[in-house]
Write a structure and sequence with these properties.
The protein has 317 residues and is α/β, with parallel strands linked by helices. It has 3 domains: 5-98, Elongation Factor Tu (Ef-tu), domain 3; 110-219, Rossmann fold; 232-315, Beta-grasp domain (Ubiquitin-like (UB roll), Roll), CATH 3.10.20. It has helices spanning 78-84, 119-132, 151-159, 178-184, 197-206, 251-257, 292-297, and strands at residues 5-17, 20-26, 41-46, 50-55, 64-70, 91-98, 110-115, 136-142, 163-169, 190-195, 215-219, 232-236, 241-245, 276-280, 283-284, 300-301, 307-308, 312-315. The strands form 4 sheets. It has a 6-stranded antiparallel β-sheet, with helices on one face. Strands 9-8-7-10-11 form a 5-stranded parallel β-sheet, sandwiched between helices. It has a 5-stranded mixed β-sheet with strand order 13-12-18-14-16. Strand 8, helix 3 and strand 9 (163-169) form a beta-alpha-beta unit.
């Protein structure tokens, strides 16, 4: 079933750095907004049939959502449109915030590690931890100080007495040593990381001996290429359709071509919007949002990037 959407109006656009714009989005009719816990992302429907997910900078307090978007040179359309064509007063459709990067609000210590625009969900977490009066430290890496969005805001949050901010800029020859940060954290600490692929890979390596329930990360893009080998069938149990997935197409492409509605956003296996229950068959998992236990159980698939190892998949669609 397609997910219900609601209308948001662009109320403010602000230049945060040379390549980052922030957007304040509110209901044009002043309707209450769905709750957005720290770490959540908002899925926007943009012109050209684009759906994109953006991490929220706060919990939606004050009747508006705030997102920050970096202009990506290799943009697939989302950041390009927002940077070049979005205007104050325009309306967009959105889906209720989802949270695949949830903050543990009972942890005795929270270690936040951000690279570049990966600061967005971690800023929301720092704000929430301050409101709870819990201890946190944030380690923020960027190429240079002028490309470090929200640095002043983070310094103000740290000055409130609950957290500490540590910045690292390659232009100043100050580099983030993730392994050292992890070693210095307490055994009960929860660790969070968001940023480019290399940062996430280093974080995973540094935390491999930590209990998995205390290690949290969110990627911008999948590490693996999408499954487009094809050569299998997907039986859609609820709609009664049989979909043949040919070479060069993703499972999601084939489902949509068959006229079956399925929500999706990132098309890279990162956000989890298109997550679908597997009734039988063996998926070829290529995503970044399922846990290792979920992949081993084969009870769910992310069809925008994953395919099949068996000749047939039976899906709850």
């Amino acid at each position: 079933m397609p997910q219900e959407t609601f209308t948001l109006q662009i109320r403010q656009i602000r230049l945060e750095t040379d390549d980052v714009l922030s957007f304040e989005l509110a209901s044009p009719t002043q309707n209450p907004l769905p709750v957005a816990p720290a770490g959540a992302h908002l899925e926007l429907h943009l012109p050209g049939a684009l759906q994109r997910s953006y991490s929220l900078l706060d919990e939606g307090l004050g009747g508006c959502y705030r997102i920050a978007v970096k202009r990506e040179p290799q943009s697939r359309g989302g950041s390009a449109w927002l940077h070049s064509q979005a205007r104050v007063g325009q309306t967009l459709q959105a889906q209720a915030p989802r949270n695949d990067f949830a903050l543990n609000e009972h942890a005795p210590e929270s270690i936040l590690i951000a690279g570049g625009i990966g600061i967005t969900p971690l800023l929301a977490m720092a704000r929430r931890l301050n409101r709870l009066g819990h201890r946190w430290s944030l380690h923020y890496a960027a190429p240079s100080p002028d490309r470090m969005a929200y640095r002043d805001c983070l310094q103000a949050l740290a000055a409130d007495g609950h957290g500490s901010l540590h910045t690292y800029c390659s232009s100043e020859d100050r580099r983030l040593d993730i392994a050292a940060v992890v070693r210095a954290s307490g055994p009960q600490a929860h660790l969070y990381c968001c940023g480019p692929a290399g940062l996430i890979d280093d974080f995973i390596t540094a935390t491999q001996d930590r209990p998995p329930e205390r290690v949290h990360y969110e990627r911008f893009a999948a590490r693996h290429a999408a499954s487009t080998e094809g050569g299998y069938e997907a039986l859609l149990a609820r709609s009664g359709k049989t979909v043949k997935v040919s070479a060069g197409r993703t499972l999601l492409d084939a489902i949509l071509d068959a006229g079956v509605d399925i929500p999706y956003a990132c098309s890279q296996g990162v956000c989890g919007t298109c997550r679908t229950r597997v009734i039988s068959g063996t998926p070829d998992h290529r995503d970044e949002c399922l846990t290792e236990a979920e992949r081993q159980s084969n009870e769910a698939i992310i069809p925008c990037c994953s395919g099949a190892l068996s000749s047939t998949l039976v899906l709850d669609l």
